[in-house]
Amino acid sequence: MNTISLSSTAIKNMFDQLQQNFSGNLSVKVKEHILDIDNEFGRGRIRGITFKSGISLLEFDVKFSQDFTLRAGTAENPPICFAYCLRGKVTHSFGNQSNKKVLENFQTGILTNKAFEENVLHFTKGEHIKISLIVVKTTSNQNILRKHNLNYRIQKSFLRGEESKNSIYIGSYNLKIADKIQQLEAIQQRGIVRSLMIEGLVHLILAYEIQQHTDDVKNKEMNKGNLTHRELGAVREVSKTIQNFPESQHSISELSHQSGLSPGKLQEGFKLMHGTTVSDYIRALRVEKAEELIKTSDLNISQVVYSVGFTSRSYFSKIFKQKYNCSPKEYKEKQQLMSLSA
Q1: Are the C-beta atoms of 248 and 309 separated by less than 8 Å?
Q2: Fewer beta carbons within 10 angstroms: which end of the chain, N or C?
Q3: How many other C-beta atoms lie within 10 A of the C-beta of residue 169?
Q4: Any keyword Transcription regulation (predicted)?
Q5: CA separation for the pair 284, 273 (Å, rounded)
C-alpha cells in the first residue's frame, strides 16, 4: 500500500505536495487548483480552492491503480471538515489508531481532531471515488473569528468553546447534496464569476450538511429511509433525465419502469433528494426553462408554453405568476424594455 503524507493544510502547499507524489498536470486559475492524473498511480482529478472566508473546497474524483493512504497533518488549531461521498466509499482513521469509519456514497460526515493529529484517508484499488471535503478554518484568536462571522458560528456550534477533539460523525443518506455537487461540477463560467458561483454553492452544500447533522441529532437514529444504494442511484438518474428533457411528457409509470423502482420508491426518493414530488419537480423545471426562453429567445408566450411541455397557457400563466410575481407577458415586456434601454 502506498502512503502520501501532506504536511500542510494550505491548498497551494497541499497541491504542490500532491503533484510531487502523483506527477500529473497541475493548473491554477483564480486560486482554483486542479491536478489531473493519468499514469501508473491512477486516473482522475483532484481539485481545491480556498475562499477569503477561510473556507476551502477539496474534491477527489479518482480511481487509483493500487491501495492508497493519504495522511494529512493538522496544526495547533485543526479545521472542521464536512465530507460528502458522491461515489464509492472512503475509510477514515485518526493518526495510528486502528479504529476506522467508512463514509459510503450519498452519506455526509463531519470530523474534528485534536491539535497536530493526522487525518488518514484510505482509498481502495480500482474503486472510483468521488468525495467532496469542505474545510472550515478554526482559530483561538477571537478578533480574527469575528471578522469571519460564518467561521465563528460554525466553530462555536461544533467545538462549543472547547479544545478540538478526535471525533467523526457519519450522517444519514442525503440526495439533495448530490444534486448540488452536480451543479458545482456543471459550472462552465470562468474568472471571478466562476469563483463566486463555486463559493455560493459551497456555502449552500455546507448549509445542507449542517442541517443534516441537526436533523440527525433531533431524530437520534440515522434515517436512511427504505432506499438502497442502487435505488438512490436510480433516483439520481431519473432526475438527470427530467433535467435534460423537462419538455417530455413524463409519467410516473414510465419513469418507474425505466428506473426499475416502484412508484412509491420513486416518490420517496424525490422527497429525499428534492423535497418535493416527481410532478412538482417536473413543473418547477419547466417554469424555470420557460423563464429562460422568455428572457433570451424571440418566441412568443404561446410558443414558449408548448415548447417546455405545458398544454395550457392559462395554467402556465398562473404558476409563472406564483413564482415570479408577474405574468409571463409582463415579464417579457420588462425584458424588452431592459434590452432597449441597454
Answers
A1: yes
A2: C
A3: 17
A4: yes
A5: 15
List the pLDDT tens digit at each of the 342 positions of the chain.
688 888 877 889 999 999 998 889 999 988 899 999 999 999 999 999 998 878 999 999 999 999 989 998 777 788 899 999 999 999 999 988 878 999 988 889 999 988 888 889 999 999 999 999 999 988 766 665 565 577 778 888 888 777 788 889 888 788 888 888 988 988 989 888 998 999 999 999 999 999 888 888 776 554 445 677 788 889 989 998 999 999 999 999 999 999 999 999 999 888 877 888 999 999 999 999 999 999 889 899 999 999 999 999 999 999 999 998 999 999 888 887 776 665
Residue 178, all three cell numbers: 448530490
Angstrom distance (rounded) from CA 215 to CA 107: 14
The long-range contacts involving 138-147, CB below 8 angstroms and separated by at least 24 positions, are 138/77, 138/78, 138/79, 138/80, 138/164, 139/77, 140/76, 140/77
- Helices marked H in the chain — which ranges? 11-22, 142-147, 149-159, 175-185, 191-219, 229-244, 252-259, 263-274, 278-296, 301-307, 313-324, 328-341
Helix (H, G, I), strand (E, B) or coil at 295: helix
305's grid cell: 408554453
Distance of CA 338 to the CA centre of its chain: 34
- What DSSP assignment string belongs to 168-206? EEEEEE-HHHHHHHHHHHT----HHHHHHHHHHHHHHHH
- Alpha-helical (H) ranges within 35-189 are 142-147, 149-159, 175-185
- Cα distances from 161 to residues 141, 254, 312, in angstroms, run 12, 53, 58
Antiparallel, parallel or unpaired: β 2-6 and 68-72: parallel
- For 88, the grid coordinates are 464509492
Q: Are 215 and 241 in contact (CB under 8 A)?
A: no
How far is residue 173's CA from residue 103's CA, in Å, rounded to a whole number?
10
C-alpha cell at 15: 497541491
Q: Are 87 and 105 in contact (CB under 8 A)?
A: yes
